[in-house]
Structure formats: C-alpha cells, structure tokens
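Newbie here. two chains, one complex. Structure please?
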Amino acid sequence: MNCASTSNAGMLWLLVKVNLLQTWRRLLSVRQQSWLLTTVIAMFLAGYAALAFVLFYKGLKFAGSFPGLGHVLIERMMFLLFAFLFVLLLLSNMIVSYTSLFKNRETLFLLPLPVPIQTIFQWKFIESAILASWAFLFLVSPMVAAYGLTQQVPWHFYPATLLLILLAIVIPACGGAWCALLLARFLDRRSFQIGLLVTAAMLIVVGAVWLKPVGVTDEELETRVLIVLDRLLGKTRFALFPFLPSYWVAAGVQQWAEGALEDAAFYALVMASNALFFGTLALTLTGTAFYNAASVVQSRGSALGRWKWYQTRRKRRAVDARQHGPVDRLISAIPRLRPDKRALIVKDIRVFWRDTTQWGQTVVLFGLLAVYILNLRHFGAQLTSPFWSHVVSYLNLCACALNLATVTTRFVYPQFSLEGKRVWIVGMAPIGLPQVMITKFALTTVVSLCVTVGLMLLSGWMLKLEIEKLADLGLSAVVMTFTLNALAIGLGALYPNLKEDNPNRIVSGFGGTFCLVASFLYIVISIAILAASSPWGRGGRIDLSWVLGGRAVFLGLSCAVGLIPLRSGLRRLAKFEL
Amino acid sequence: MIELINLVKKFGALVAVNNVTLTVPRGEFFALLGPNAAGKTTTIKMITGLMKPTSGSVRVSGYDVVQQPLEARRQLAYVPDFPFLYDKLTPWEFFRFIGQLFLMDSARIERVARDLCARFSLDPYLGNPIESLSHGTRQKVAIVSALLHEPSVFVLDEPMVGIDPQHARVLKDILKERSRAGTTVFISTHQLSVAEEMADRIGIMHEGRLIAVGTRDDLRRQSGTDGALEQTFLALTAQESAVDMQGVRQKVGL
C-alpha cells in the first residue's frame, strides 16, 4: 500500500483494522482456555436463545388464540416491545459512548496523533454502536423468529427484518452519542448525579400515575371484555406515536409479515432516510463538539467550587479526613473484629460507595424487583388460589436469586482482580491473601443477605404466606446467597485479571462469563428442585421423604457449587505469587 | 520550536497554569521541573492538544495547536508517563500502525524501526504480544513508536520510569542526538540528575507559574546557591512558597 496516499477514510480503516486484529486475537485466545468451559458457555447462550424463542412462540400463540382480539394484542405487544427496547438501546448507547469517548485510554492515545478529530469520533462512534447494540440483536432475534413462525411469513421476511433492525440501530446510536457529548460538555459529576436522581424520581412519579392499577370486577371481565381491553390498550397507546423510530421498525416488520410489502417498504425508507440523515450528521459534523467536550472533561473543576459554602465545606472535610468517618465507627462497633479485617472492610465499603456506577446499577436492579414485589398487593384477588400463590412465591425467589447472581458476577467476582496492580498492598500485609478473600466473602454475603432476605420477607408479606412457607423461602434465599457469593469470590480468585482496572472488562472475560453461566444454571436447577419437593406443592400431598430428599439435594448442590470454587480459590491464593 | 504565549488553564476556581509564556527554540533540550501539582502535566497536555487552554495559545513548529491541530500533530511526538499500547498487537505491528498514521511508507518504517529497536534491544520481543512485555519494555516500545516519524518536537512526561540504566543511557543519547539534529525536546521529570545532565535550559514551575527559566548557571545565580541542581530547585521553590505565604499574611492583615 502506498501509505503516503492515506486519506481520512484510510485513517479510519487503519483504526478499524487494528481493532479488528485485536478482537480476533482475543477470540483466538479462547482456545487456550478449557474447551469444557467454552462449550458450557456456548451451550448457555444457545440455550438462552432457544428458551427465549420457545417462550415468545408460546406467548404469541396464546395471545393469538383469543378470537377477534389476538391480532390486536400481538400487534400492540410488538409495538410496546420495540418501544422499550429502543429506549434501552438509547440508554445503552449513551453510557457506552460516554465511556468510549471520554474514559477510554485509546481515545487519549489518539488525540495527540495526526488523526483528524472527526476520524477519531467516527471510529469511537462505530465502536460504541456495535458494543451497545449486539445485545439488542441477540435479544430481538428469538422474538422476531417466533413472530415470523406464528404469522407463517415468507422467507424474505427475515432478511428484510434484519435490514430494518440494522437501520434502526443507527438512530439510537446517534442519539446516544449526542446525549453523551452534551452530558460531558455541560454537566460535571455532581450535577449529573443530581440530574439523574431528579429524572429517576420524575419517571417514577409519572410511571406510578400513568400505570396506576385499575380495579376490574369479575362481572366486567365476564361481560365487558372489550371495554376493559380498550382501557388497557389506552395505557399503551404511546407506543403507536408515529414519529417514534420504534414505531417505524415495528410497523415495517408487521406490514412485511402481512404481505403488505409496499407499506413495509415505506417504513423501511423512512428508517433509511432518518438513519442516513442522522448518521451523516454524526459522522461528518460532530468532531469539533467531541474535541471541545473531551477538553472540558479533562479540565473540569467542581461546579459548586465558586460558592463560599462549598469552599468552607471542603476545608472542613479536609480537616475531618484525619478523623474516623461514620463507616469506621460503624464497623468498629462489630465485636471481636480484628483491626486488619476492619480496615479491609472499611476500604471496600468506601471504594464501593464512592463509585456511583457500582451502587447505581445495584439499586436499579433490586429497586425494580422491589417495585414488582410491592405491586403484588394489587393482584390480591388473583393470588387467593394456593396454586398461584405457591408458583409466584417460587418465581419471586428465582427472580431474587437471578438478580443476586447478576450483582455477584458484576461486583463480587471482580473483587480480587480490582486489587489489580495494588494487590501487593494487601498481599504483603500480614493478614495474607486467603484471609483477605474470606473477609471480602463475609462482607459481600452479609450485605447480600440483607437485600435478598429482605425482599423474600416482603414478597411473603405481599402474598400473605404462612410463617412456615416464609421460613422455607427465607432459608432457601440464605443458602443461595451464601452459594452465589462463594462461587463469585472463588472464581474471581481462580481467574484473576490484575492488569485491568475496568470491572466491566474483568467481568466480560472468560471467568466472569463462566461465573454468570454457572450461577444461572445453579439457580434454575435449585428452584426446580425446591419447587418440586415443596411440602406445599400438589395441595400438600407430598411424601415427607420426598421433601427431605429434595432439600438434601439442594443443600448438597449448594455446597458443591459454592464450596468447591471457594476452597480452590483460597488454595490458589495461599500460593499466589505477587 | 514550541511557543507558549500567555498560557492559562483553569479547572473551575483552580488556576492550574497561570499565564505562562515560554519559547523553546528548534534543537533545544528543555527540562520542566516542579513539585507535584505544579502544572507540568497540564502544560504538556495543552502542548499536545489533549486539552484546550482557557486563554493564551500554544504553537508547535509555528502551527497553533488549537487552530491547526493536524499540522501541529504531524510535527509532534508525545510519550506520556503511562503510555497506551494495543495489548494484542506485537511491537512490530504497532510500529507499522503508528508509521502509517504518520503517512510513512513501509520501507521507511522498517528502516527507522530496525535501527531504534536494535539500540533499545527490542529485537527478541518484536514478535511477542505487547501484553506479555514488562513495564520497561513497553515503555521502550512507546518511545520507539514516538520517534519513528522523526518528529521536530518531542514531548516526554517522566520517560525514564521503569527503564533500566543501560537503556536509560541509550534514551539519553538518542534524545541528545535528535536535539543536535534540530529536534526540540521538551521533557517533564522529577529526576533532577536527568535535567542537570541533559538540558540546555531548565524551567521550574510552582503552583501554575513558571518561576524560573534558564541554564543551570542562570538558575544558580537566581537562587543564590552554588551546589547541585537539587539545591537550586529547593531554594527557588522555597523562596516562592515564602513569597506566597507573605502575600497571604498581607491579605489577611497579619
């Protein structure tokens, strides 16, 4: 190649090529890992896709079986799903773009090189769009396949839908990147946190008012189905707003499935024109805005710094920094806790608390679950049946454990790796690495127990369960909390990544993926065992030996899944070379 | 040549770089010294275009870094204290990539890289992924990649960190050779011995201001000391702190 003729497009291609090579080599490095683990992960992903497909297929079949209403219900579900996925895609693009553009070492490396700012932005935009959207494609594929099969569409529906979805990805990618630029340019961390809390509070209020449960009597359900259905559909009419990009995709998909190819082509062209317009704007005119924002991000003082009260507060805090803080005092109150372990716990709590993204995600995950459980009270009439109460209580346990698995994989698994280049600090201390890990295990388990047991008690209260049932579910949650934390801590020590500071990258490695897969499989199998051997299942006509046997298998499985990785991890740390 | 003209950088209420004016001519080896948080790295970030000045301007080889960024960057090479490298590439692939970004042809990339790699003893590592290299070797890879396009301005932030004495000597020799051949070398360091041995002129920053600039002898005269650069540096920064304290006392009426 004649390098002297390299144009801006050539520069972009160089960046793409070098990153493709990096990605390809990362994929090849999977060969060096155990084929068994790789196979398990591949099977898990395939299993997820298959399960999602079956659930969508059965759901669409069920909805379609309502005479006269099936078509309307399916149509509305498609519009709603695309609307919500579109919002998630926008948020995901915003977060990934912010990280790629302003918190990424490659960006800082490229800025002083003779690469046009617009080209750097183009590459980071493409990278962010791919990173933010692959999961969207993975989530939507089983749904589209199930929809196609239930509607008995011709073969060309699938490539046409793929094209529509690919076009749809461009619009939130542009929106997300621009939102990230605006946030970076105009909001510092504190203003962003305040803005986020205010927006979240407003959304909760709007959601609570808009989605307020409506009482429906049995008589209305028997005689006025259409009126009730119309009321329900009225609440979801926002998804049919014709200026929403999600509307264009959903309408295009639906029209193509029905054979109205001209109408579908119209929506495809609307998508294409918007994607081209916004994509061209992003790829040609955003470079300067990006450079200005990047410069501001690196040189931002506190937004409150000009205020006298804030300066006084900072001075006071500088003095207070030498005193013991509230976390210190709280942990010191624990009797017989050795000072070295106390110091470690205080350090971990502070690091977690000061990283907004860490606890922010945890709050969102468990907050959503709490909102769902609190809403169970509105289904009081439907949950009077012991069967449904039984099913829902186990589903709640499953949802709670799945949330916990997400949290343990995301936050507990990288605990050891996050010591990273600083591992010598705790490694050289007389406490020893195994004790460090046991302390981390104790801390994360105690915190997790507060959340999981709390949620299970709330769930039991909402479902008005008897005390024995509540105790059974609570104890199961306790065992699962111990197991999931032990699994995450153990695998984190077995597959450490001490070179990486970013927990997202640590988790997305082989060990993190394996931790998530193992946790999910453990939860699914455990819930199946617990539900099948529940003393309250099948109207309480279950043999005691069956119940005890089931519980024994659950305990044995929990010990194996939790203790084996924990012990192996501790053994490895005892011989760990710093 | 590097020209800093009334350069100011503010982080909110904090003035990180306070009205710095400095010209480093072609072929000069300039060392920037200063205590922690003096504003050295911020100054370097503005020279390399990573940050826009709040006011004032920076010119690299006559090109304004903000107004003519591409022209300025073509003249410039920058090695930060913790350089970014593509972990899954080999050093040789990385050199080729950097050379292509600077529009160098393959033959020239190979010729210059071979010479530099031999001097830094990098040959045994050229086929290994960068992720497998030690900190010092990675630093050497970053320096070679920065020197590939034969920049007219070379900016280094703490370049000796992690490099063994033998290769630190090689780096010093190369920097001196380049400087004699017309490259402007601008180095920020805490290693006073490096500045003392290498620099044609030394600048000392303190709390955002450039409090002294000159040859070693100039600085000695200014500080009223007669020993090693360490004494000069400590005397100048202590004087400046005393002046600051006096100003504060006058302000509060003590």
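Moderator note: The two ends of chain A are 45 Å apart (CA to CA). Chain A touches chain B at residues 1-4, 6, 11, 14, 18, 21-22, 25-26, 105-106, 108-109, 111-117, 291-292, 294-295, 298-303, 305-306, 311, 499 (CB under 8 Å). Thread marked as resolved.
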